[in-house]
């Protein structure tokens, strides 16, 4: 019975870790996109900052994902 409890805890712990990685990836991409759109409106440079900050947001999401995998993965 104890093994089943530990197995379920491990499953839910991994599920929570994967969910947080996905949310972090989406959030960082969305934040980068919003910053880029705002700066493009502020400086009247239509696609430049949107593209730059979208790429930076995606890169930040991947960096966070790799750090999480390095920390908890085996």
Biggest β-sheet strands, sense, barrel: none
State the order of secondary-structure elements, H for helix, E for strand.
HH
Question: How many helical stretches?
Answer: 2
Amount of beta strand: under 5%
Q: Give the rounded overall mean pLDDT.
A: 91
Q: Could you say which overall geometry the principal axes of the C-alpha atoms support?
A: rod-shaped
CA radius of gyration is 18 Å
Can you offer a commentary on this structure?
The protein is mainly alpha-helical. The chain contains two helices and no strands. The chain has helices spanning 2-43, 48-72. α1 runs antiparallel to α2 (48-72). The longest helix is centred in the first third of the chain and has 42 residues, at 2-43. It is rod-shaped.
Defining traits:
74 residues, mainly alpha, rod-shaped
Q: In a few lines, what is going on in this structure?
A:
The protein has helices at residues 2-43, 48-72. With 74 residues, the protein is an all-alpha fold.
Helices and strands in order:
Elements: H1 2-43, H2 48-72
Helix pairs in contact: 1-2
